[in-house]
Amino acid sequence: MTTFFGNPGSTELPFLADLPSDFRYILGLQEAVAVGMADGFAQASGLPTLVNLHTAPGVGNAMGAIFNAQANKSPLVLTAGQQVRAMMTLQANLTNRDATAVPHPFVKWSYEPPRAEEVPAALAHATYMSTLPPKGPAFVSIPMDDWNVEVDRDAVNGAIERSVTGRAAADPAVVKELAGRLAGASNPVLVAGPDIDAAGAWDAAVALAERQRLPVLASPAPGGGRIGFPESHPNFQGILPPAIGPLAEALQGHDLVLVLGAAVFSYYPYIPGPFLPKGASLVAVTSDPDEAARAPVGDAIVADVKLVLEQLVEALGEASRDAPEPRPAPPEPAPSQPMSGTEAMAALADAFPDGGIVVLESPSSTLALRNQLRISRPGSYFFGAGGGLGFGLAAAVGVQLARPNRPVACVIGEGSAQYAITALWSAVAYSTPITFLVLSNAEYAILKWFAAMEKVERAPGLDLPALDCVAIAGAYGVRSRRVEGREQLTSALRKAFSSDAPELIEVTVAPGMWLE
Ligand SMILES: Cc1ncc(C[n+]2csc(CCOP(=O)(O)OP(=O)(O)O)c2C)c(N)n1
Questions:
Q1: 142 C-alpha to center of ligand 1: Å?
Q2: What are the residues whose beta carbons fall under 8 Å from the beta carbon of 170, sequence distance 6 or more?
Q3: Is the CB of 414 under 6 A from ligand 1?
Q4: Considering the entire predicted model, what is its pTM?
Q5: pLDDT in tens, 24-82
Q6: Could you give the residue ranges of the DSSP H alpha helices within 286-356?
Q7: What does the pLDDT read at residue 160?
Q8: Which atom of ligand 1 is nearest to the CA of 511?
Q9: Closest atom, ligand 1, to C-alpha of 446
Q10: 10 alpha carbon to ligand 1 midpoint, in Å?
Q11: CB 174 within 8 A of CB 301
């Protein structure tokens, strides 16, 4: 936890005094950015990550990002400064009188130690809580005078120098039964979810799919922050739609649906229908007891998805059923002026470097990116599962800090970019050579799409004329340029990917939704 994030105030300064030289403090200019950067860092590194916020207003500013971190199952240790203990009861300026209540319900645990001597143990507790499944944020409020109190090292070492692990295997009898169901099914399908990536289980998922000749679908794009299966693999068949009726429709013909590392399901919008096609049954494997409990249909096994996959691979032989037909390559998008989101994503695919990582927050082009890019390496895709805008720009900085040797592309709508725009400053300050690709369509395209579906007419506030991201980025010190057309875009992207500084490219895309 030697890299940590924050935005300081007077109540946090004692914590920051005399940092050891091997600690790195990453400053975010607004708390949504500090937490978003930490979220990206925690997910890309797999490590618990500390964020220090400024008492009540700092935590308040961060709430949307904390919600996202919970949805992303990001192991964040959130701390906030607090007034000195001697002035808390009289509620001196900056006192957060109900500090532990503020971050609820988006944290797993929230605490203010009753004595300074217990701060180390509380931080250890929060750290272990954040990393136990389901991973997520935990919070500690720390009165500012606690940092100068001497503690007995022996007394706190017991709480700190421990290992606490939470990877649990499933009951072997349950896995055996599941293996039997899979072997006996006539047309099973695997649904790959984000926790396969977080658990490091790509190889095991591929082994199971290949051995059992399973078609594989990705869990719905919203609600799934990571990719759990190589999208160019011949068994991969596409992404499930997120609404109830269409999702069941997409599973038509399958008698067993095996969901790995995803909730069942993160539905939206509301299009009612049966949860499963007739004759189908479902089994979900998840490390999250709440996901298991709240599913509207199917059985669930609460366990580490990688361990269960490995147990299944061991229990099952080669299936004799036919492997699925590989899906065709993405269609070449028709050129248009301005280009479509699909064409922009095709340009990104042309320029995309080996080992590249995408951080995505471009609502109208989410599916276009998935279909055109077909990401096929683990740890290469991060999307805000909670749906709160502001994740993308900030998380990209954290991802790049955690993965300094991999090229990172942040693909973002010009509307979405505004929610955490000051992350551009951090990108420059900490020399993260991110390629920011801003898709500019002068509107909130996805909301217009929703408005049509919800039969909402004449809603105000859905147009974004005259937003100039090149000028904004320039003010934060990011080299930036506007391009038009696929050729210019591809060449600008290639240059940006090979640059050792952050670069921003803004491209005009046509209004509308891009699903292919
Ligand atoms: C914090 C937050 N506020 C508002 C929204 C609602 N919202 C969802 S998508 C969207 C528009 C995004 O615009 P842009 O990034 O330009 O993408 P486009 O839809 O045009 O592709 C908004 C405002 C949200 N998801 N999160």
A1: 35
A2: 285, 301, 302, 303, 307, 308, 311
A3: yes
A4: 0.98
A5: 999 999 999 999 999 999 999 999 999 999 999 999 999 999 999 999 999 999 999 99
A6: 289-294, 305-315, 341-351
A7: 86
A8: 20
A9: 19
A10: 34
A11: yes
